[in-house]
Amino acid sequence: MDPVLQDIYSTIIPSAPFIIAAYALLWAALLIYVIISVRSLKKSEAQLAVLEETVASLKAQRAAAPTAEGAVSAQQAASEKAAEAAAPKIAE
Amino acid sequence: MAQQNRQRLALKHPSTFAQYRTLLSKDLRQEFRTKEMVTSMGIFAVLVIIVYGAALALTAQSIDIASMSGGLIWALIVFTSLTGLNRSFSHEKEQGCLEGILLVPLDRSVIYLAKATSNFIFLALVEVIAVPLFMFFFMTTVPFAPTFGMIVWPLLLGTIGMAGVGTMLATITANTRSRDVLLAVLFIPLIYPLLYACVTATTAAILGSAQWMDLYTMPLVMAAGYDVIMLLACWVLYGFAVSA
Amino acid sequence: MADSQKKKRPVPEAGQWPDKLLVPVLVAGVVLTTVGFLMAFLYAAPVDGAEVNGFQLIGSKLVTHRQLLSQKIFYFHMPVAIVSFVMLIAAAYYAIRFLASKNQRYDTCSRVAMEISLLFVIGTMITGDLWTRFEWGVWWTWDPRLTTYLILMLIVIAYFVMRNSVDDPERRATYGAVISIIAFIDVPICMMVTRLIPTSIHPVVVRQNGMAPDMTITVMVCLVGMLCVAYGLYRLRFRTVRIEERVEALKEQLEEE
């Protein structure tokens, strides 16, 4: 190749790794952030589903138990169940 | 008759300046009696100079100490002011003074102004001691340029800015867990433009070369602009920060 | 936790009208950034570097300088930098609205905006650093833009460190709002100071000012694309944080019973 042409294009190949690295790292950073956010979202949605279920069962139990004592024991049982159900999910 | 009695008994609401003067004199009187802050800041400045001595020991003869001295002096002032700012609110928090002051129906910005002024006075006192000490230790071989006296203005503007921003940040970090480290982490990036401008102006004044005015006036204007803008912002925001 | 207040303007919440725009805006963002990326390499003319001895006729132009490929990083570097500052403005806006109304929701918006700003500042530092490494052969120079972005990154990291060390939610929100407003005021000052003060010690090579039209179009396309991507990320993260907050509130309610 003509030496002048070679000189004109001389910086392209040495610079290619830097350019590729720059764009790749930028996309990687954005992608990592999106992945972290979506994983956190999925976990929270699962916890939300469990909690709503326990709230519904709590209300049902309290409506079904007529006496105060029965209501208190049912409350305790339901809140224990809620803590149990929430605990393994939290520990995940 | 009742009206006359009422007028005699009515309390005079103190003016804002009187409130400011009272708060400021409280801080100054406390410092005058115990001398704890100025002494600890002064000793810390001497210790930093000793560390400089170790850092520059091997190269003291070969480097151009005059051109580095501006930066070294300002690093000294930044570290000393961090020490002082950390302690300025420790008293208020330990003795519960701040809650007491907040009970008084005064404008919160007056507290800010009084605290910033007292911090400025202490820092200026320490600078008056530390800068000649630095010159004694490191700059005896350097001939003094005729413009040397002009370092007063960057020192003044820089100290005002550091005291102002530092007081606001010290108020915020006084209630957090890792108090000292958080103050340093917040203080140094926010103070960076002021530091850059003041170092340039101080170095220009110390070197005193032919075109020193170019490197001196523009940074001084920028430092003054920084002071005005940041102090105004802190003045407005202080009410929110201290009532939290 | 009402979705709207008695005032005329409702409080921002996940699932409202901005989320309906989310998918089209995100798709637009991805498309635009890809188009911009292609334009950067195929459409915009390469920039001249150092001179060479002699000349060549390439295509129909007389070429007398080295052609730089590394300058193509600029087409993503500047939009990312601008977007990070736009997110800082958004964070300061929500901080001001929090201080005015004391509603915790604005504090959440402010925090998420600061997170996105941090992400884009890190992107700016990565691309800028790699560009500097190739251009000048050093890993770091204290030139105005890199220094300002370093300071911005340090301030945003300090913001998150401070948020972690305060336990009381209202106090944390107030301090966070004050810091983000001060940061928003400080960053332009930093940019102006480092740019306007003449440095006689390190001569800074001044680049050609003014951009050719094809460069301008490419940068604009990338900028709009990046803004859309940032908006999409903000809404996604905001929805995640809101659901986390609602889960926490539900747990507390169940514990009380």
In this structure, how is the largest beta sheet of chain B organized? Answer: none
Extended strand count of chain B: 0
**Between the first and last Cα atoms of chain B, what is the distance in angstroms?**
46 Å
Oligomer: heterotrimer
Question: What is the CA-atom radius of gyration of chain A, in angstroms?
Answer: 30 Å
State the shape of chain B. elongated
Order of helices and strands of chain B: HHHHHHHHHH
Q: Mind describing the biggest β-sheet of chain A?
A: none
Q: What string gives the helices and strands of chain A in order?
A: HHH
Mean pLDDT of chain A: 72
The largest interface is: A-C, 40 and 44 residues
Task: Catalogue the unreliable spans of chain A.
Answer: 85-92
DSSP helix fraction of chain B? over 70%
Strand content of chain B: under 5%
Structural class of chain A: mainly alpha
Look at the structure and give the mean pLDDT of chain B: 86
Describe the structure.
- The complex is a heterotrimer of chains A (92), B (244) and C (257).
- Chain A is mostly helical and 92 residues long.
- Chain A has three helices and no strands.
- Chain A is rod-shaped.
- Chain A has one domain.
- Chain B has 244 residues and is an all-alpha fold.
- Chain B has one domain.
- Chain B has helices at residues 2-9, 16-34, 36-55, 65-88, 90-95, 97-103, 108-138, 152-173, 179-207, 212-243.
- In chain B, helix 7 (108-138) packs antiparallel against helix 10 (212-243).
- Chain B is elongated, with a radius of gyration of 21 Å.
- The mean pLDDT of chain B is 86.
- Chain C has 257 residues and is mainly α.
- Chain C has one domain.
- Helices cover 70% and strands 8% of the residues of chain C.
- In chain C, helix 2 runs antiparallel to helix 7 (213-256), helix 3 (74-101) runs antiparallel to helix 4 and helix 5 (144-165) packs antiparallel against helix 6.
- Chain B binds chain C through residues 168, 172-173, 175-178, 182, 185-186, 188-190, 192-193, 196-197, 200, 214-215, 218-219, 222, 225-226, 229-230, 233-234, 237, 240-241, 244, and chain C through 99, 151, 154-155, 157-158, 161-162, 165-167, 170-171, 174-175, 177-179, 181-183, 185-186, 189-190, 192-194, 196-200.
Topology of this protein?
The complex is a heterotrimer of chains A (92), B (244) and C (257).
Chain A: H1 3-8, H2 12-64, H3 68-91
Helix pairs in contact in A: 2-3
Chain B: H1 2-9, H2 16-34, H3 36-55, H4 65-88, H5 90-95, H6 97-103, H7 108-138, H8 152-173, H9 179-207, H10 212-243
Helix pairs in contact in B: 2-7, 3-4, 3-7, 4-7, 4-8, 4-9, 7-8, 7-10, 8-9, 8-10, 9-10
Chain C: H1 17-20, H2 22-42, E1 47-58, E2 61-68, H3 74-101, H4 104-136, H5 144-165, H6 169-196, H7 213-256
Helix pairs in contact in C: 2-7, 3-4, 3-6, 3-7, 4-5, 4-6, 4-7, 5-6
